[in-house]
Design brief:
Elements (H helix, E strand, L loop, with lengths): L11 E12 L5 E16 L2 E12 L20 E14 L2 E8 L23 H4 L11 E10 L2 E9 L17 H4 L1 E11 L2 E12 L9 H6 L4 E13 L4 E10 L6 E13 L2 E12 L3 E13 L3 E12 L3 E12 L1
Antiparallel strand pairs: 1-2, 1-16, 2-3, 3-4, 4-5, 5-6, 6-7, 7-8, 8-9, 9-10, 10-11, 11-12, 12-13, 13-14, 14-15, 15-16
């Protein structure tokens, strides 16, 4: 749901820290950390400035699993500081308009059930995130985001620079807006939420160079004369079955991409016991010449008022290998 902030009389500052211990139960361990800061400054009644940064650090350079979907949605290379949000938000009635730097994780594929699981595919589906260099965590890009709330129905549409960045200078400057070389990403979603049920659907259009030219090879990019227009569709359901049980069903298809992830599907069940929530989730990602089946068992336990502890187990099978990963995540907000 949309959160209106134009009634704030003072700035709103928040810090969120997430720490995660990982093991493959053999020889490998990893300690991953994510620090995020958010600052919102009201300017006028219907206008405010938003600013958010992220910093990541881990103790192991290589990942514990060579999986296709990334089992941890916070693990990245060591990043001292990167922008997640920097821009101006206008609010009027039931509408919000943001102009500036942003990433897709702030708005899309974020719902009560999907936010429980730690696998990256419960965030942005791999039919979009695995195929294109878009503004997906930990990178952002210049864009425009519009939200409209109508009772239980929300509409959101955005236009982004087709490539995300995280640096502040040079060609990979996060302020860069260059559709000619970086492409464009247009994304729209319609969501309906009522009585703990959620129904979500959307589509994205990506105009940019073919995937063969998105590997950073400038010579290949110079040779590419024709951009491609790719379309991605998705939908997912969060259905409340009883006081203690919700189910999650997901599906997404890339109708035009000849390489990369062609389709994705997932199903899960969530259990609510007192103030804790646990879940089991299974997804299948079909790539051009690969596949991956990922399973997750997790439980989130609140602690220290604004914190939580979350153990998780991942069993992953693809056409290259099998992996069994255990994780213990701790999060706290100030």
């Amino acid at each position: 749901m949309i959160t209106h902030c134009h009634h704030l009389n003072a700035q709103n500052f928040r810090i969120e820290y997430t720490s995660e211990l990982q093991t493959d139960f053999k020889e490998g361990t990893n300690w991953v950390n994510l620090l995020r800061t958010d600052l919102s400054i009201p300017i006028k009644k219907y206008l405010k400035a938003d600013f958010a940064t992220i910093s990541t650090a881990k103790t192991r350079e290589e990942r514990l699993a060579n999986d296709l979907q990334t089992f941890s949605n916070i693990e990245e290379e060591n990043i001292p500081l990167a922008l997640a949000i920097l821009g101006i938000e206008f609010s009027y009635g039931k509408s919000l308009l943001f102009i500036g730097i942003r990433n897709l994780n702030e708005d899309y594929f974020a719902s009560p059930c999907t936010s429980l699981f730690t696998n990256s595919s419960c965030g942005i589906f791999p039919t979009l995130s695995a195929n294109y260099p878009i503004a997906n965590y930990p990178v952002s890009s210049v864009g425009i985001d519009y939200k409209l709330e109508l009772n239980y129905c929300n509409l959101e549409t955005s236009l982004y620079n087709g490539t995300g960045y995280r640096y502040f200078t040079g060609r990979e400057n996060v302020l860069r807006f260059c559709p000619k070389t970086d492409g464009l990403l247009s994304i729209t979603s319609i969501n309906y939420q009522k009585n703990d049920n959620g129904y979500y659907c959307g589509f994205a259009l990506y105009s940019g160079l073919p995937m063969d030219n998105e590997d950073g090879d400038k010579k290949k990019k110079q040779k590419a004369k024709k951009k491609e227009l790719n379309s991605i569709f998705w939908g997912y359901i969060e259905q409340h079955l009883s006081r203690h049980i919700n189910i999650l069903i997901q599906y997404s298809v890339n109708t035009t991409e000849k390489k990369g992830c062609r389709n994705y599907s997932g199903i899960g069940i969530l259990f609510h016991i007192k103030n804790t929530t646990g879940g089991i989730f299974t997804d299948y990602a079909n790539f051009t010449d690969k596949y991956e089946l990922a399973n997750e068992l997790t439980w989130k336990i609140p602690c220290y008022k604004n914190g939580y502890i979350q153990p998780a187990f991942h069993f992953i099978k693809n056409n290259q290998n099998r992996y069994f990963i255990g994780m213990l995540r701790f999060g706290y907000k100030i």
